[in-house]
Amino acid sequence: ANEEGFVTIFTTGEKQSSVLKEWQAHDNAVFDIAWVPGANSLVTASGDQTARLWDVITGDLLGTFKGHQCSLKSVAFSKQERDGFYRQDSQQGVTVVLFCDENKLISSGAVDGIIKMWDLRKSYTAYYPNPLPLQAYPYPGSCTRKLGYSGLSLDSTGSRLSSNCTDDNIYMFNISGLKTTPVAVSSGHSNSSFYVKSSVSPDDQFLASGSSDHHAYIWKIPDPKQAPMMLQGHSQEVTSVAWCPTDFTKIASCSDDNTVRIWRLNRRPDGENLLNRDPNVVGWTLRKIQSPTRTPDPYSPVEVTPAKSPGSERAISLASPQPAACAPTGADLPLPSNTSAPSAKVSSPRMP
């Protein structure tokens, strides 16, 4: 989805990608989309303060959800169908919502630096007007001002929560226990907006995240202190990333350079001649040289969710960015599954 309100569905292949369907879902930016579990339909969340349900086969609008008084930044489904209305949280600028099971919802805000877990089985009446979270996870960093979160992702067990924070860290919490402090911290990327998201690999071994420095990053979850691998190839901020659920070596990344890229990760033999690299490869991996974590200016104004100005970072549309100067090195990446391809090979849709 994009800032003009269009939703595009691609068929992706090893050599090329093509547009399967495209339609204008809103007259405003679409900030998030979510597939309806087990159905050929999805929901779009937009800056026009509505969410809409679409049949992706016919392109028909099946329903519109109203009631919000601000832009919708996030949409999520529980595994079991659930209808109802819940009194709004007082959390300022809710940026992400995520179901951890059929009864619990997790939310994060843009300015209060708190992650909250809600028990949806509770009801609130006139006698209990203010909803109270089942658990709250305060900001664990060292910045003197509280910062917000731009993304939340769960592992396959639903017990480990990875949280993209705008202090350039990704905090991992064990939400199945009682402790509210992080069990791991991943650093090395840059997060200067509320659009950078992360994704956990289906085998729970790797964490991928977008970044404001035009790269995507991969950490090995059992060893979060190890410097991450960089996926180089985009030319603007990388926002959303997603692991393929059936092939752990494939990652999709979405960027403000107007491209969605499909990456094939494969361990490259150390002795391979890099000068003979496939000319179609426009991105590759490189171990990042770790630098000290950025400490924001404590006197900076409180961060709020910004609105990306149309075209501000998208004046130049690149179908294939120029290769970076760095060559790939031996990478501790997921092992290939059923097909083989060069390291971090990209199959990009052709852009007009």
TrEMBL record:
WD repeat segments: 23-64, 87-128, 231-266
Domain of life: Eukaryota
GO terms under biological process: mitotic G2 DNA damage checkpoint signaling; proteasome-mediated ubiquitin-dependent protein catabolic process
Biased composition (Polar residues): 336-346
Pathway as given in its UniProt record: Protein modification; protein ubiquitination
Keywords noted in UniProt: Repeat, Ubl conjugation pathway, WD repeat
GO molecular function, one term: protein-macromolecule adaptor activity
Keyword Transcription regulation appears in the UniProt entry: no
Annotated segments matching region Disordered: 289-352
GO CC terms, sorted: nucleus
Keyword Repeat listed: yes
SUPFAM superfamilies per the UniProt record, alphabetical: WD40 repeat-like (SSF50978)
PANTHER family noted in UniProt: DENTICLELESS PROTEIN HOMOLOG (PTHR22852:SF0), LETHAL 2 DENTICLELESS PROTEIN RETINOIC ACID-REGULATED NUCLEAR MATRIX-ASSOCIATED PROTEIN (PTHR22852)
Entry similarity comment: Belongs to the WD repeat cdt2 family.
Name by which UniProt lists this protein: Denticleless protein-like protein
